[in-house]
Amino acid sequence: MAGITEADILNSEEFDDIFEYADKLGVPLDGLDALEDMQERLVMQLKKNEFGNPKAWIAKSLEVSQKEDTHKRLKIGILLEEFQKCISECQNGNGIDAIEDLLRTEGTVRDLKQELGQHIERMKKGDCVFVVAGETSAGKSSLLNLLLGQPILPSFTGSSTSVITRISYGKKMNAEIVYQESGTPTEKFDNINMEWAHEFLWDRLRIKDENKRQTQSHIKEIRFQVPCEVLRCGIVIVDSPGIGENEAMDSVIADFIRENEIMGYIYVIKSDNSGGVDEDRFLCLLKMVIDKQKMNQQERLEHFDSKSAMFVCNRWDLVKSGEQDLVFNNTVKLLRECWPSLATSQVIRFKTEYAIKEAECDPDFIPELYRVFLECLRDMYIHAMDHRIQQTYKWMDEVFTRSIFQLQALLAQVNMSEKERIEKVEDIKKKLHTLESKSYDVINSLKEDVEQTSNELCEEFRPELMKPYSKISLTKWLPEELPQLDDRGWPYLKMNLRWKIAERVIRLIEEWESEKGKIAVVEERTANVMKFQLNLLQAEMKKIEDGMNAKESCTREKLRRSISNPLTLRRMSRVSISEQQSSDRATPLKLITRVLHPVQNVVDNIRSTKLIDKYILAKKEKKYKENPSKIAREQTEKFIQELMEPQQPGEDILQQIISNLLERSMSQLAEIERNIPSLIKSNEMLLDRALSFQKNIVESKGLYENLNKSLEGTKRRLDHYYKGYISVKNMREVDICTPVENGRRRSRSFRASEILHTSFFKKSADKPTSEWRNGLWTVVKRGQCNKCDITMKMYLPSSRIDTTYNEVAKLRFLNEKTMAVLEGIHYSDAPPPVFIFQDHLYTLAERLPCWPSSTKCNKLTVIKQIIDGLCYLHKHKLVHMELCLDTVTVSRDGEVKLVGGCLPREFVQPSETELVGNFAYLSPNVLRGSTYSNASDMYGLGLLVFELLLGVTAFRSHRETLLLNFIKNVDPLTMVDPADDLQRLSCGTAEFIRSCLSPTKEDMFPCAGDIQKALECIGQENLEIVRENPTKYSLFGEKEER
Hints:
Blueprint: H1 6-10, H2 15-25, H3 35-51, H4 54-89, H5 96-106, H6 112-122, E1 128-134, H7 140-148, E2 164-169, E3 174-179, E4 187-189, H8 194-200, H9 202-205, E5 219-226, E6 235-239, H10 247-259, E7 264-270, H11 279-298, E8 309-314, H12 324-336, E9 347-349, H13 352-361, H14 368-411, H15 418-465, H16 468-475, H17 489-516, H18 518-548, H19 554-563, H20 589-596, H21 600-607, H22 614-626, H23 628-644, H24 653-661, H25 663-692, H26 697-726, E10 729-730, E11 734-737, E12 747-749, H27 753-756, E13 773-774, E14 778-785, E15 788-795, H28 805-811, E16 822-826, E17 834-838, E18 842-843, H29 844-847, H30 859-875, E19 889-890, H31 924-927, H32 934-950, H33 963-969, H34 972-975, H35 987-997, H36 1008-1019, H37 1025-1028
Parallel strand pairs: 1-6, 1-7, 2-5, 7-8, 8-9, 10-16
Antiparallel strand pairs: 2-6, 3-4, 3-5, 11-12, 11-14, 13-14, 14-15, 15-17, 16-17, 18-19
């Protein structure tokens, strides 16, 4: 096996070479015919030997993410319960009830206590339910069996699943059968095996008789608990019948979606289908999602996040190799035309049967496409759980901000006389009435703009109706395409026929828009005009509300910032923080045309037509029976004529359809028209309450002051929660920089498992390259994210750290020029999360050998900046740890930018055979079991100054001895400098280094005065020592990157 590399395998073009590699690696190639498949199996064996099972890595990463989510939910749950307690203590007509009336009027809440209770319950839930849906025979059940590691679900050619199957984690395999009838008890089966499940449950999971599949099963759900590590984090997989098979199977899925909180969707596509994505079936699922969202809006629950979805192009091995790019791009295009804000990364290729075959060969063989699927599942889980917390935060922030504003507006009136108060109220009411009148003018103007826009589009589109191709596609009907005449007679048939004709017109508009893009352009223009006008209204509202509250606080300032958002007046729109950047995007056209039905009002016009004589009706029905295609063609031509030449003003059918297609503008306009009056009315109620405030001023003032104080305290903690947890970016698509080749720097996708595996640093004598800088427990790497330079910091497995949420929360509050800026975190395929810092940073070990003489940062400046950074970290109850030339980072210009801030931790004892190496940088107290403290950082600082000024390695004669012996015998003052190099430094500098290394009490490290004296001494040292003799640096030697 030695000597075989991944490049050797992938570059082999001869089967003989592959067979030879297989023999050396001990890998069977049975069942494989293609050279590419053989190469992948051999590469999987190499990676298995080096990094282990990727599925196990991702399962561990998911478990760590679950711990973080649990911590976040617990923290915000405490704030919710504080708010609930505040409500219960202030619940009377003049307390929180009065504020709730105002919140309800302006649309912020409908029922404050009910919504608060819902959010408290949601924050107690750790399950994350993903519905797996897709096309019939797309391989959903097979894919899930692969993920679960055993054939739990029936998977046959054709339709397999007939009932909802819910699969969650359990230490042993258990099952439950839940029946439709509420009176029928749930059957429970514990500690079952696969043979029993196949014999007893598969016939219940799958209805083979096609006739019986036309009706719902008497079983509502079958629930499995299985020992699958990927599900340990709380993921619940729900297998469903194929979308679009029949109404009964669709109703099974629709009922489940309606009755449960769904966190995400996995939609499986039959890639070898000649037409690509089955659009009708996919839109059927989308309609279910939209219907659930409408129900959530009514119940004041969250919006579904379109990013919490994955589209799996299954059976990819059945797509011809020469057509794969075309098929994939077409699939993405079709999905993007329907699914809001779809990202290409949400669509993945997959080969279920191939992955199953590899798993049968070796459970640790995870093909690349399977690995990508697992990573997407992990990303979707993290995004969905964050989205749930963000929705609760948004609700709390909105309620607190508006409540505090209303309380402070009331309290601002306390010191006014009754006359002043009346004059103030009258003045503000007058301004509100003026604003209301102005808003109506703006709304009417915007309506005219929308109408003008739709008229422009109508004039652009009408010529398309008269083109030969369009006339043929609209008027040519086959009998099987037409509705059947039944007992409901001609009026009902005509309505159905008109619906079908209108749908054909819609399809023609879709084709025209796909080619011309006219609707998108004018819709964007209209939306921008609307946002501009709304901003003006909001500016007026802000001025009025400022006048109602003379107290300018941080809460009011935040209200100003929130009110500057064009969507703020959409009270409680339930758009998540992650969605706000994309919430202004136009709804995909096909989502409007196929799901939201813009022709509904056109068809409804038929229902209001006057009654026709029975004789005429009978005559029309007879003609339709004789020649339905002819009648359909005549009706279509009549419909086209109505589109081309509307008979009366206001009856322009085409204009009605086009207006409905401008969904974003119409939706915003409707919300403006609805919410501005509500907000004005709420402020008027607040003013009326201020007038009645004087009647019980002493009691009411104390009540409102206490309520305001309580809310402001919780709001401050909520703001801290936001900064420490919500505002932390989840960085995706991270690349790492690879070594320079042929004068060019390249990059590749980043995976932590390839770096953090202990075998990567298995040899203590290995010297990290300039690409990898590692300390004892961390590694620093440069890379890119979204085309911006970044630096990553990862904890190595040797640190035994798997969660970092407390650390991240503290790092977010650091704001000092010597601190690297934490941009966000990256969840890779191995825990713990990776820290992402702004810009490329370099360790001192990298930068010193090539330090340009013209740099503005000399050694004194660097030391001073390091000390400033350490003092700042210690002030915030953090430490740097591992303070040495390999962990202190600087910018390209040599300015210190520390990435090492962390919570104090205890030393992780390595193996008994471990050599001293870089453990020499830890203080004796830490090595002997004490928690790493501020004094330990000062110990490391002393060694760093020693190495930085002298260019020699501390404890260099002890680096190759056993660490256990070193811990027993270490005496820093006598062992650190056997050659007595300190004599080359001034007495002040040498004394400072000795004071840092002195093994006294932990809290006795150099004080500020000692440091200032030391800096003066260091400033007098010969700062050219290193430049004169750079070869003395045993740690340095790499060339500067270009």
